[in-house]
Amino acid sequence: MCLCSLSLSLGQVCIVQKRDTEKMFAMKYMNKQQCVERDEVRNVFRELEILQEIEHVFLVNLWYSFQDEEDMFMVVDLLLGGDLRYHLQQNVQFTEEAVKVYLCEMTLALDYLQSQHIIHRDIKPDNILLDEQGHAHLTDFNIATIIKDGERATALAGTKPYMAPEIFQSFMSGGSGYAFQVDWWSLGVTIFEVLRGWRPYDIHSSNSVESLLQLFSTVSVQYSSAWHKDLVSLLRKLLTVNPEHRFCGLAQMQTALYLSDVNWDDVYEKKPEPGFVPNKGRLHCDPTFELEEMILESRPLHKKKKRLAKNRSRDNSKDSQSENEYLQECLEVVQQEFMIFNREKGADGEAAEADDGDPDAEGGTEDEETEPEPETSKRSMCGSVCSSPGSS
Fold first, then answer.
1. Domain limits at 69?
2. Angstrom distance (rounded) from CA 376 to CA 392
3. Do 365 and 85 touch, CB atoms closer than 8 A?
4. Are residues 264 and 177 in the same domain?
């Protein structure tokens, strides 16, 4: 039984319940054919690869991944408090104390990712979800990348208003690339926006890269005179155009006077009370959108078994030389290469008793900018249909 369904840019999300424990999760399911046609298979696989290797109290953690003939499924922590973007759109006025908790929690999340050699590349209010107590959790690793041993990322990837200047500079000049500092810039932009209601720079997806570089070199950020001077000082350290002078990591954040009174062990244990607690009596997303999705979803999960049986019967009657033969080859590769995962048992071993399966789960803004550079895929995808260029 799908309790709630929400359409995303890639796939849908619904609330599910694990039969044996009755624990609730969020389940994202992505249609394989659509992923192939939209050249998103590599991004999905990379996100799965990253999520299977990480776990943190302030991340939305992956618990299971599985597949059937039609879809790929990712079962993750269920966060019912809504994302910060939704609450901003609802005109919530966040206090400095409330935002300070988010800042500390995201600092621990980003420091952990950095220790795992991961650049998230899409820190923004949309990707920070609140639990029912009001604590913040980072989600959406669709365009994240891993860099090790002094490597640098070079792809133009992210959401423009939150992307650090060096990402655009690297794209324009073909320079040395960028590293973990870009996530801390995005955190600064996000904290500024959640506090003030608008971003420090007036940037939109339509802005050219050239105009943005000009903007960063000529426009100064205007901070609110009502903010504590130590908060402004910290934001300046996060919104420093030169990445070499930008705060990047827990150790540097701990030197900020604004955070001098923070007990970081308490933060990790979620002991500080959030200044904003989502209303438990309401749905923290657009209910009109939810209802439309539930009505208009053309391939509902509860009809999947009948639909797959019908598709198999139809496919068996087709001529083997059908015009979709190449697509079918790609879908077969996806089927073979998909990574089964069960956090309770480990990946690909005990958890994967078959090529696909269900771990007892019942179906219960601004656009991203990505322009990755060419890279040889480690997986033998079917040419340009199944594989997208690497995005490091």
1. 5-79+284-386
2. 11
3. yes
4. yes
- Write out the two tokens for 326: 């190449």
Residues shown for the chain:
392
pLDDT in tens, the chain (392 residues): 444 444 455 678 899 999 999 999 999 999 999 998 888 898 899 999 999 999 999 999 999 999 998 999 999 999 999 999 999 999 999 999 999 999 999 999 999 999 999 999 999 999 999 999 999 999 999 999 999 988 999 999 999 999 999 999 999 987 789 999 999 999 999 999 999 999 999 999 999 999 999 999 999 999 999 999 999 999 999 999 999 999 999 999 999 999 999 999 999 999 999 999 998 866 666 544 443 433 344 455 655 666 555 555 555 555 545 557 888 888 888 898 999 999 988 655 444 444 445 545 444 445 555 544 433 333 334 443 344 334 47
Residue 59: DSSP 8-state: B
Whether residues 117 and 224 fall in one domain:
yes
Query: Which amino acid is present at 51?
Result: L
Two tokens, residue 165? 């200047």
**Looking up tokens 């619904």, which residue turns up?**
14
Q: Which position among 122, 126, 131, 183 bears the catalytic label?
A: 122
- Residue 296's CB: how many other CB atoms inside 10 A? 9
Residue 280: count of CB within 10 angstroms of its CB: 10
Answer whether 158's CB lies under 8 Å from 366's CB: no
Same domain flag for 90 and 209: yes
Active site residue 265: no
Neighbour tally for 144: CB within 10 Å: 22
CATH of the domain at 218: 1.10.510.10
Secondary structure (DSSP) of 196-244 = HSS-SS---TTS-HHHHHHHHHHPPP---TTS-HHHHHHHHHHT-SSGG
Following DSSP, what letter does each residue of 328-372 receive, concatenated?
HHHHHHHHHH---EETTTEESSTT-SSSS---SEE---PPPEEEP
Assess whether 22 and 96 both reside in one domain.
no
Q: Is residue 279 part of a domain?
A: no
Number of domains in the chain: 2
